[in-house]
Design goal:
Length: about 230
Amino acid sequence: GKKVLIVYAHQEPRSLNGSLKKVAVEELSKQGCTVTVSDLYAMDFEPRTTRKDVIGALSNPEFFNYGVEAYEAFKRRCLASDITDEQKKVQEADLVIFQFPLYWFGMPAILKGWMDRVLCQGFAFDIPGFYDAGFLKNKLALLSLTTGGTAEMYTKTGVSGDFRYFLWPLQHGALHFCGFKVLAPQISFAPEIASEEERKAMVASWAQRLKTIWEEEPIDCTPPWYFG
């Protein structure tokens, strides 16, 4: 069976994000997938990139360069265990689903911190060895997110601009950079102002989509998809 990692960033299990995570676990498990959830708030996951991420001596204690130190520590197997635990989950996954509410056109800090710390050089990419040559190139990634704004706000002529614009740094700058093949995002627009029926429909449509998720083709990872 396939292996799925859900990286989940919401504080409240009864939220729509919580429901979307729960239904994904149920649906994918029913298919025979092995599903692992990293519940970042429950784990009290550290989002900051600090000296503590390296066990033992730094390669250059005179001048702290996080990117260099994380790369060297990865090669020496001296990264902190909370990072290596997550890297192991990513390494084993065929599909990584990120479930989160959109904060300021981006990810909540705790999830951004997961990206900053887990997707380090040597593990997720190298120079050269990024975009189509990124080290996670045999994996799929999918952003499932909720917004405060309505769908019409997130159109080309809407006040927030097309939703694909804010996906560029997340999908292209992080996921595709590391080689992931990116599946179309699942966006649940404005659940806060939706009716109970509409929220149920959002959960149901996600569950329905997951039934055939393994047949989907990744999006075209080029600027025109976003800004075309």
